[in-house]
Amino acid sequence: MARRKIVVAMMMHETNTFSPVPTPLASFRPLSGHAAIEEFRDTNTQIGGFLDVAKEANAEVVVPLAGGAHPSGYVEKAAYEDMCDAIVGAIRNGCDAAFLALHGAMVAEHFDDGEGELLRRIRAVAPRLPIALGLDFHSHMTAPMVEHATVVAGYRTYPHVDMAETGQRAGRTLLRALDGLVQPVMVWGSRPMMTSTLVHAPSRQPMKDIMDMAIAAEASGAVLNASVFGGFPHADIPHTSLSAVIVCDRNAEPGRALLDRLLGMAWDRRDAFLYSGAPLASQIAHARTLGDGPIVLVDHGDNTASGGTQDVMSVIEETMRQGLEDVAAGPICDPEAVKRIVEAGTAASVTLPLGGRIDMPQINLAGKPLTVTGRVTRITDGEFVVTGPMATGTRSRSAAASRSTWACSPTAASTRAASGTSSSSRASTFAPASSRSPGTSCSATATAAPAPTCGSSPTGTGASPFILSKPEPGQFGGRFYAILASGMASAF
């Protein structure tokens, strides 16, 4: 049998239509050809999983584009067109199949359904091409996405630790179809629900039973693939919803029955998919009552993994006002502050306005810097390989980023800041930050690089741009508060 030629491509973005952070082509750090294969080979990413399957099949691989931007605002029209042209052009040149690592929540300046429009264009030049489509758990499913794909599979976890596995699931089903072993047919549906990302993780209720049912059906062979998508509520588009896609072999009836059960269970639990917060001051006060650390204050409202600017200082300001001690906070995106820190140099004491540089007119929020004092403890290049369970093996580079990590033990009378990490929207891999300095005075670790833009960090894999770890014994005293960004906090 002749060696198959497979086009493998990645075009990923989770668009927050309320975000003021722009998304030009540079945000995607696009690669192609051998460079793309070397970058993502053996990584826990969708495209890494697709490359694994192509290697198993001894296929010829063509990678016209491997690009991913972290969540931010609308994808610029020129960027979208350039990326689509690259993928469609490669397919037009001829291939036996396509493996597409997409997100499912891309919104361009001129298209609400970025993935559906790409697939429509592919079908225009290759009407019968077998296409395997991998999607994020936070996808907005649409009819064109299902109509123009052959196989669809989505992440089953959040945080997304099964990205490579998802590519493998979709790719292997498509290879079975190419070999004539199965004939995929798909059914899908949705419910008008904007489920909160704070409560819809598949590892816990109310989503757990629903996802477990889908996983069991696929594992038993009752269907080829079964995926449930929680959706991404930070997008003002018509098709925001909770959805599911079932891939069946020849007969769609088992899939329809499973689909009805999955969506029916979700709808019956719709109230449980809503998140109710509490005022910031009361959350910080509650954190003080929770005993020994680590106690994590998660600011979801200013998270770059959801399109935040990562420079809202309200949680840090309130933490300092209430006199919490042994605090590490971050990341914080502030290129101006990083520039001053780097100019001051290691061991320097610096007083400066931190964060609050970006206004958010879509939600009527003006930036408000917080004046802090800190000591510079380290200046680094910020480059490393991710070893955690999400996006394992991907490389962090700071070529388009400036980052600063702050750490201190603020008191009620102190003007010193908790720790943070300045992150950039234009890096192509992770920007983790762990506080590493003694907890008796403010400190900063800075990564110097060309001028960045705030809002999102690396790879476009959908991963969090930071990793906080438990401190070494005695590092921050007995308690440890981790403020992951700043703006809206919840203590648990």
Corresponding CATH superfamily of the largest domain: Response regulator
Order of helices and strands: EHHEEHEHEHEHEHEEHHEHEHEEEEEEEE
State the distance separating the first and last CA atoms.
Answer: 57 Å
Low-confidence stretches: 399-444, 448-452, 456-492
Q: Oligomeric status of the shown chains?
A: single chain
Mean pLDDT: 83
Features of the shown structure:
6-stranded parallel sheet; 492 residues; disordered C terminus; single chain; 2 domains; Rossmann fold; alpha/beta
Descriptive account of the structure:
α3 runs parallel beside α4. An eight-stranded mixed beta sheet has the order 12-13-17-16-11-18-10-19. It has helices spanning 33-40, 46-56, 77-92, 114-125, 143-147, 163-178, 208-220, 253-268, 280-287, 314-321, 335-344; strands at 5-12, 60-62, 66-68, 97-102, 131-135, 151-154, 184-191, 225-229, 242-249, 295-299, 327-329, 349-354, 370-380, 384-385, 395-396, 403-408, 443-447, 481-484, 489-491. The chain has two domains: 5-273, Rossmann fold, CATH 3.40.50.2300; 280-491, no CATH class. With 492 residues, it is α/β, with parallel strands linked by helices. It has eleven helices and 19 strands.
